[in-house]
Design goal:
The protein is an alpha+beta fold and about 350 residues long. It has 14 helices and ten strands. One of its GO terms (biological process) is carbohydrate metabolic process.
Length: about 350
């Protein structure tokens, strides 16, 4: 079956090492299918899906399907999810819009890895409800999407990282719709508006440029590509990249984090910059433990692990980055394949909203 062989990257990771990392993720999975940050930790819908994607890429398909079944069961009637669970109990009922949209990316990735159309059909109602919910929160004048709905109302601000991720998730949902022959023109319009906001209206988002994710996510998720994407990455490379250790999560803090490093690897892969991507993936291996799990980060000022936790989503990001660079599974291009010349210019938005599906 496609995707049954875990990725390997000679000189960086072996197949056995990637499988061991996937097994460390599966070991943390709870009996209902939820994948918490670590054993006994909380589960959020976004990182849960990221971990399910890694299980899929490594060939642990039963565990991946159990994770998606959990997503289907815990989805609310409006298409959203509570933002935090612990041991099956809701800890935070607020709906993070980006958390909700990411199911589409995970389902598309599973189908790309396995070719399982029945899975696509089964999960389609959940993806459709999730994306409809996300688009219902697109209330910014430039096409941005509000990030949070609480019991008391909707958060007024939009977040650049989250909106970039939702841009990608909506396009993954459109790819799934194409596969199933379901027209979704309103999603196409929403994606064009959102991509336009990410690319052309930085003032529409809360200022969080200290964080590396606001730097590379618009590239990772396809709003910036080609020379523009490379220019964006180069513009702050020295602010975030720390030699052979990885990248900072926050530009003025003395620690590097593995997941952000691997996501930058994926962003570089969308640009065809495989040399720097491979070097960074090799660099973050100092966070690896003997059981295949990964520490979240390292304070390079004193050499201490911080935070003192080995997170499933850090290992998951590593597996997905290794798959992208090794071109192993059918889903290895889950980000690269969407880094295309989508017209998100003002003129393109005015003239080409419909019929621009990737």
């Amino acid at each position: 079956m496609p995707g049954s062989e875990p990725p390997a990257l000679p000189g960086v990771l072996t197949t056995a090492q990637c499988l061991r990392t996937a097994e460390s993720i599966a070991a943390a999975q709870e009996s209902d299918g939820a994948i918490p940050w670590f054993t006994g930790g909380h589960t959020d819908p976004w990182d849960h899906v990221e971990s399910a994607m890694a299980l899929t890429a490594a060939g642990l398909l039963d565990a991946a399907r159990a994770a998606y079944d959990w997503s289907a069961r815990t989805q609310r009637p409006d298409g959203s999810w509570p933002s935090q669970f612990r041991a099956g109990v809701i800890e935070n009922a607020d709906a993070d819009t980006n958390f909700c949209g990411y199911l589409a990316t995970g389902v598309w990735h599973y189908v790309a890895c396995t070719g399982d159309r029945r899975f696509a059909v089964r999960m389609w109602p959940h993806v459709r409800a999730a994306i409809d919910y996300v688009i219902s929160m697109q209330r910014g004048r430039n096409g941005e999407i509000h990030w949070l709905r609480t019991e008391s109302g909707i958060a007024a601000e939009a977040l650049l990282t989250g909106c970039a991720s939702m841009f990608h998730s909506i396009r993954a949902a459109l790819a799934l719709a194409d596969l199933l022959g379901v027209a979704q023109p309103e999603w196409e319009v929403a994606a064009l508006r959102l991509g336009h906001a990410v690319r052309h209206h930085p003032d529409a988002f809360a200022v969080k440029d200290r964080y590396s994710m606001d730097w590379y996510y618009p590239v990772l998720c396809g709003a910036f590509h080609g020379p523009d994407g490379t220019a964006r990455i180069d513009s702050r490379w020295d602010d975030f990249v720390v030699g052979d250790l990885g990248i900072r999560c926050v530009d003025d803090r003395p620690w590097v984090t593995g997941a952000e490093t691997c996501e930058l690897v994926l962003a570089l892969d969308t640009l065809g910059d495989r040399t720097r991507a491979r070097r960074l993936l090799a660099a973050m291996q100092h966070l690896r433990e003997s059981d295949g799990s990964y520490w979240t980060g390292l304070v390079f000022a004193d050499g201490k692990r911080w935070p003192e936790e080995r997170t499933t989503w850090t290992g998951a990001a590593m597996i997905l980055a290794a798959d992208a660079l090794s071109r192993t599974t059918g889903g290895n291009g889950v980000f690269r394949d969407f880094a295309t010349n989508v017209d998100v210019t003002a003129a393109g938005f005015a003239c080409d909203c419909v019929g621009s599906r990737p």
